[in-house]
Write a structure and sequence with these properties.
Layout lengths: L11 E4 L7 H14 L3 E4 L4 H4 L9 H12 L3 E5 L7 H6 L26 H18 L5 E5 L11 H15 L2 H8 L33 H29 L5 E2 L1 E2 L8 H4 L7 E3 L8 H13 L6 E5 L18 H11 L2 E6 L26 H16 L12 E4 L2 H8 L10 H14 L4 E4 L10 E4 L9 H10 L3 E5 L21 H4 L1 E8 L5 E6 L2 E14 L3 E6 L8 E8 L4 E6 L1 E3 L1 H14 L14 E7 L5 E7 L5 E4 L4 E3 L5 E2 L4 E4 L4 E6 L1
Parallel strand pairs: 1-2, 1-9, 2-3, 3-4, 4-5, 6-7, 7-8, 8-9, 10-11, 10-12, 12-13, 13-19
Antiparallel strand pairs: 14-16, 15-16, 15-17, 16-20, 17-18, 18-19, 21-22, 22-27, 23-26, 24-25, 24-27
Helix pairs in contact: 5-8, 6-8, 14-17
């Protein structure tokens, strides 16, 4: 089976660890679940040492009771394979299963995410446990979905991983000649003559001052790809073990949004549905979470995803852990639904009594009360989701704007020795995403391999590597009349991070109609000025010196020796009026907004509520399988916002009907969900 679990409404609940508590506490939990509208429990995530207390001993007694109790209460279970953290006996019996870190230290037992992905012992025992769990519970009435492992991440640099890396390289390159060419290994006398000479890039080999300072970018880039594939191999082994006994129940693992270490695009085809854990810094702008939601939706070609975890109140993993203010939990949850979430789940349902997460937010605190503010907010949201029912399940986002997101470019940009280590991939990508959302456009965040035919506008900021046929496919967007925008530090390297033997921006040069001969990098405190239309905006970090080769100058540098040269250009491309826009510096928000709005307006993609963003209101559209149009209005401001209804519709959450042209008022942190007519 492929796809999302079938449910009558948006599943509501979260991570539940009743194995930590006596069964009389379970009674209280289920009573409180009923009051809060909680119908879905994620169980068994870290249960390995409970389920397999010794190498040849399995004990499912407690898990049997947990699932049977859930079924008796009418609740469904997302059942984990329990393999996310090693049991102590396994680390003792097989020391090689413990990871070796970037500095070359073999770790002892402890923490979590603590296994070597190349360890045969880990692979054998984890898949054995997953298979036993699947065989036992495949037909259990409470089972809703399978949850493989948990929040995969981390890297290992042991001898097992070194051997596995060499095998991965043999398969990728076929010959040492091809590998030497890809890594440009004639530099610094690095030409390899035997596969055994290749070492993982670490603090003991090619790196200095940390993982992003490497002598050979191609080598480090490939090790990050290898790590992604090694952990994916662990997932696939467990998934296969589960599928042997449970061929039809959907399978997922919980991602972590914009998580740098793993390329989720390489994982996406192997999940039945995407799910992720949302823990944004509470001082981050709401568009950061929106970008992550849209990235998760883009993993499965626009299909809905599950919000597998979020905190109902506070986290416990940061130096300072602010509390969600009244109304913020509801707003964040509806924002997830607005961007494609078909489930709203929490970590955690009951607070742990001990260890490092005892202060992490929970629906039910240590005292087990139902009269706390947090519990009341969770219960009220549960009521709203129940009343909304299945309305938004399966709904899609009708976006005509795509934003390209590329892990390879992220890795390559941030480990490049020049022009500037101050340029951060996510920051620049967010600049352009935020500007498009502020203009009222819905945005699909997609991989560079995505089909671009559905889109009129493609935003490709800091697309540092241009791989395969991407340049030709971007030209095709413009040839049919669309617009492609890219920025400074784009198209600098191929898939191996080798510089193109051409003028910058390499294969994007014909589409952009520019040539970049030089670039100036400045400290964070240095600000340049750019004339953009009638306005003057700020720019910083990198200033590329552009020579037009057919492009029109749209923005102009006002300072330094390159004053008067282009900072923003537009190039007419193709016979249908397509355009390529090039932004040669990091503009401030006002400048980015102006450029993106002009691009979107050309295609009629600025939304009817485009001005609402200035008042703190986010808009997002979804279309249900039966064609019903839904419009979410989310007020992220602490003050009331008044808009004008641009279409007739009914607020699903209150039943209030709005006629076109009528004032539409949102409370502070308020949500309106319009079913449009």
């Amino acid at each position: 089976m492929s796809g999302l679990p079938e449910t009558p409404k948006i599943p509501y609940g979260g991570d539940y660890n009743p194995e930590q508590w006596p069964e009389e506490v379970w009674d209280a939990d289920h009573r409180l679940f009923g009051r809060a509208g909680i119908d879905t429990l994620t169980v068994g995530v870290f249960a390995w040492s409970l389920l397999q207390p010794a190498p040849d001993t399995y004990d499912f007694t407690v898990l049997d009771r947990i699932l049977d109790r859930a079924a008796a209460e009418g609740r469904r279970v997302v059942l984990a394979t329990g393999t996310a953290a090693l049991p102590p006996w396994l680390a003792r019996a097989h020391p090689e299963v413990n990871r070796t870190d970037f500095e070359g230290r073999r770790h002892g037992y402890g923490q979590r995410h603590n296994f070597c992905p190349s360890s045969p012992a880990y692979r054998r025992l984890s898949t054995a446990l997953a298979g036993r769990i699947a065989r036992r519970y495949a037909d259990h009435p409470a089972l809703l979905a399978w949850h493989i492992n948990n929040e995969y991440g981390g890297a290992c640099y042991c001898t097992l991983c070194a051997d596995a890396f060499r095998g991965w390289l043999r398969e990728r390159y076929g010959s040492l000649d091809a590998l030497n060419d890809a890594w440009w290994s004639t530099f610094w006398s690095h030409r390899y003559t035997e596969w055994a000479e290749i070492e993982p890039p670490s603090a003991l080999t090619e790196h200095w001052r940390g993982p992003d300072h490497t002598a050979f970018q191609g080598l480090t880039l490939d090790y990050r790809r290898f790590t992604t594939d090694a952990l994916l191999g662990c997932f696939l082994a467990e998934k296969e073990a589960v599928r042997e006994h449970s061929p039809h129940t959907p399978v997922t693992t919980n991602f972590m949004g914009m998580f740098r270490p793993l390329d989720y695009h390489r994982w996406a085809p192997h999940l039945d549905f995407a799910s992720w854990d949302s823990y944004p810094p509470l001082d981050a702008p709401p568009t950061r979470s929106a970008l992550a939601h849209d990235l998760m939706r883009g993993l499965k070609d626009g299909a809905p995803f599950w919000l597998m975890e979020q905190t109902p109140s506070t986290t416990a993993c940061r130096d300072v852990n602010p509390l969600r203010r009244p109304g913020e939990l509801r707003l964040a949850s509806w924002q997830a639904v607005a961007h494609g979430a078909d489930a709203v789940l929490y970590f955690q349902l009951r607070a742990s009594r001990g260890a490092c997460e005892k202060y992490h937010g929970a629906v039910i605190g240590h005292a087990g009360r139902d009269d706390t503010r947090v519990f009341r907010e969770v219960a009220e949201l549960g009521r709203e989701l129940a009343e909304a029912g299945a309305l938004s399940l399966g709904a899609r986002t009708p976006a005509r704007t795509a934003l390209l997101f590329d892990w390879d470019s992220w890795w390559a940009l941030e480990m490049s020795d020049g022009p500037s280590r101050l340029v951060k991939y996510l920051d620049v990508v967010h600049d352009y995403y935020r500007a498009a959302r502020a203009a009222g456009a819905d945005v699909d965040v997609v991989p560079v391999t995505a089909d671009l035919d559905p889109y009129d506008v493609v935003l490709a900021p800091v697309l540092h590597l241009v791989k395969g046929d991407l340049a030709a496919r971007l030209e095709a967007v413009a040839e049919r009349g669309g617009t492609v925008l890219t920025t400074f530090l784009s198209a600098r390297g191929d898939e191996h991070d080798r510089a193109f033997l051409a003028d910058v921006p390499g294969p994007l040069g014909p589409l952009m109609g520019v040539r970049v001969d030089e670039w100036d990098s400045r400290p964070a405190g240095v600000t340049g000025r750019v004339r953009l239309g009638a306005d003057e905006v700020a720019a910083r970090l990198v200033f590329e010196i552009v020579v037009p080769v057919g492009a029109e100058q749209v923005g102009t540098y006002l300072s330094d020796f390159y004053a008067g040269t282009p900072a923003v250009t537009r190039n007419r491309f193709g016979e249908r009026g397509g355009e390529g826009w090039y932004v040669a510096t990091r503009l401030d928000d006002a400048g980015t907004d102006e450029v993106v709005r002009r691009v979107l307006a050309r295609h009629g993609l600025t939304g009817p509520y485009a001005d609402a963003a200035a008042a703190g209101v986010e808009t997002s559209a979804r279309v249900t399988p039966d064609g019903t149009r839904l419009l979410f209005l989310l007020n992220h401001a602490g003050t009331e916002a008044t808009l004008t209804a641009h279409a007739t519709g009914t607020d699903v959450l209150t039943g209030k009907r709005y006629e076109k042209g009528e004032p539409l008022v949102l409370d502070p942190l308020g949500v309106v969900l319009l079913r449009l007519e």
